[in-house]
Design goal:
single chain; alpha+beta; 2 domains; three-stranded antiparallel β-sheet; two-stranded antiparallel sheet; elongated
Length: about 220
């Protein structure tokens, strides 16, 4: 039908259109054409007329909350939809990585140097992200001595790159500031700054001072 041509409807047709206005547009058009033999009226004409007259069907075109899709749990027939060979070639496989993820991914067992200079090893691909990497010296120390006691940390006795358990000692975390020469201990020689021959003495003195302080705290409590 030429664009812009006015379409007229008889009273009987208008009554039918209003009475059946809630039908889906395909059924609405098919029913109207069958009832009145109007081959000059398209589904677009009827849809536009409903909108002009404000006849709402109540349908939004969206799934309402709680609605179960009609194809839920149903698989496509072989060779169709997502099971078509062309579609399957581009589908992700379980565990597959792509793009930047492929370039950045490091397999379990990969080693790296942390920003603090410690050797680390990737131990898993799970979550949280921070738990994927663990200091190698800690892994090897616990393999030799068991889990690190709560409130303790490993202090390097020499080169950080040496992860052998003999190069690390478990010390109370409260002892670390004294060994670092920080805060109120800044006038003392820091363990890491001491010559190798003096480090055992610096560590021993720090342990004695820490033990004495803990005894004073216990008596005052």
């Amino acid at each position: 039908m030429p664009k812009g041509k006015w379409i007229s409807y008889s009273h009987e047709e208008q009554a039918w259109l209003e009475a059946n206005r809630l039908l889906p547009i395909s059924e609405y058009h098919a029913g109207f054409v069958a009832a009145f033999a109007r081959d000059d009226v398209t589904s677009v004409n009827l849809h536009s007329r409903r909108k002009r007259l404000g006849w709402s069907t109540g349908r939004t075109g969206h799934f309402e909350k709680g609605t179960v899709p009609h194809n839920r749990g149903k698989k496509c027939a072989p060779g169709t939809g997502g099971r078509h060979p062309n579609a399957q070639r581009t589908q992700f496989k379980r565990g597959q990585r792509s793009g930047v993820a492929v370039k950045l991914y490091k397999p379990v067992g990969t080693e790296r140097i942390s920003k603090d200079g410690y050797r680390e090893r990737k131990i898993h691909d799970g979550m949280p992200l921070k738990s994927r990497w663990r200091a190698i010296h800690l892994v090897e120390w616990e393999a030799a001595h068991g889990p690190l006691p709560e409130g303790y940390a490993l202090k390097c006795l020499g080169d950080k790159a040496n992860t052998d358990p003999t190069n690390w000692e478990a010390v109370p975390r409260a002892l670390l500031p004294r060994l670092a020469g920080g805060n109120q201990y800044r006038r003392k020689l820091a363990f890491d700054d001491a010559p190798d021959e003096l480090k055992p003495a610096v560590l021993a003195v720090a342990k004695l001072e820490h033990a004495a302080r803990e005894r004073r705290k216990a008596r005052a409590a």
